[in-house]
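protien #1 (seq + structre)
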Amino acid sequence: MTLFKLAAASLVSTCLGASAALAADYNLRIQTHFSAESLKGQNAQAFADDVERMSGGRVDIEMFFSASLVRATETFDAAVNGVLDGDMTGGAYQTGKNPAFQFVGDILGGYDTPWQMYSWLYYGGGLEKAQELYNANGMHFVGWWIPGQESLSSTSPLASVEDFKDWKFRSPPGIETEIFAALGASPIVMDFGEVFTALETKVIDGADASNIATNSEIGLYDIAKHATYPGFHSMPADHLAINKEVWDELPDDIRAIIEVAMEKLAFRDTLSHSLEMEKAAKRLAAGDVTLYDWNAEQRAAFRKFSRGKWEAWAEKSPEANILVSSHIDFMKELGLISE
């Protein structure tokens, strides 16, 4: 092939590539608070790639990582107002709009595994109830991606509910502080980035930071030699929510593609994080960190305290009452709650 023909072929290829890039019928801008390099960020990008591939290029998703466009807590509103099309943070950020969002974000002390939470969503009527809440706030709820139970880290043993008495720890804001305060602990709300220094300087005795793998990565177990694993107190669900007007304008086949890609994301996200947590737990247990796996009786005692706070929050709005009642009924079906 002559040099001219090579150049011409290259030009044609470039033009075709540019045309393909411009050929997308639907362009979605979605933000997550996770970094592109993190496991969650990689899984989110895989979701975007799946949608683009399954749609034959009809959908182009531009991902914004590390809350690069707006703050994480502002992502939902940015999507509602058309600055973004989609939000991949979590419902619990929106409790200021309606306390009900707590129960599509993190049902503190509720379920033992992500699979139980997914079961409520898809087979316990959860999706329909969550959808009503999101729709009322200008968004369409697509689904959850749940990494798994978080672990408490501590400089002292955490073998039972009694060990929370006078335990001073980092806590996120909201219902969790109420639950642990009722157990005699002293929750201190602080940013995630402050946890290591606060432990090092003994401002706190422990922390609810993240799962055991992430806690290990940031060095918490260099100081805190005790941890709950598998965790029982918190299992945040991240969501995909899309501007309702944008969603309603998508054709049925594109909506189905996004829903299927979301279910794959959920499956892969839970499995990949489970693997990382198992590796971290094995490594820590082989070292000098003591892990506490609470038995069914101990978990039930914590769930009982939590339930009291769920029911108190249920009184804050009709939507919260609907969701709390739904979770409790489903937990009874699973045998997590006896009455």
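ok now protien #2
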Amino acid sequence: MIKNYLKIAIRNVSYSSVINIIGLSAGLAVSVYLIIYINQQLSFDDFHSKSSRIYRVLNNMNHSTGTLYLKEISTRHALGIDKSLPFVERSTNVSSELKVVVKLDGESFYEPQLHRADSNFFRVFDFDLFEGNEETVLKSLDKIVVSSRIADKYFGDTSPLGEVITISNKVYEIEGVLKPAGRSSHLNIDFLGVNDYADPKGDLWLTKYFLSANENEYDMERQVNQLFNGEVDKAYKFSIQRLIDIHLHTNPELNDFSVNGNIDFLYVLGSVALLILITVSFNHTNLTWLST
């Protein structure tokens, strides 16, 4: 019986109907894919509960070759902002080292990046730990937090807590394992150590993130620049950027922690998705009308 129904249905399906269905399905599939991609790009870093109140300080430095756009400021400036500006409720300073060599059990591996921060990192951002205590990690220079990807890669099903690993010729004890963020972030962290503010090599260059109830970015920017106006040979101008603006609204000349997107490109994709939807809807209506 069912076989007969299928035969009758197939006989009644015209060539134009097949084209209509295929065209509509393909158009909808492409549009849905583009919409999902656009939504993913727009949602970078919004999983943090305080994302609307997290900002970072950017450094536009005048140079003989032009303006350098930096995400880093000096240790002196980073610590000075904490001490002198009342709108900073809480802050953390993040730095990174690129292309590090990891040594374990006599073998060497290359990893793209090592991040460093301080104990306030987990009080500003909502990154969670699988293992370890967020209240006690990132307080010792010889300890490190690793991502679940790194834990699986190097230790398999065994807990890495207490294990020793060498990164850039420095020995660390693993004190925590990060959970995957679950949502997109411009901070893709595999190794997270501690900033050494007493490093005898000189000033660190840090990316300063802070929490603030002040929603006026221009006012905060004015106060930061005013704080350092009296410095001799000032070659820089500070600006304030919201965390949720980083992925799509950062100067492409700035060397960020990860590759950022482009809001103009998303406008183009959104227009393409809308155009496809209009076109397939128009074609579907016309072909349906012609087949009746």
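The helical segments are 2-12, 15-42, 75-84, 121-124, 148-155, 217-227, 263-291.
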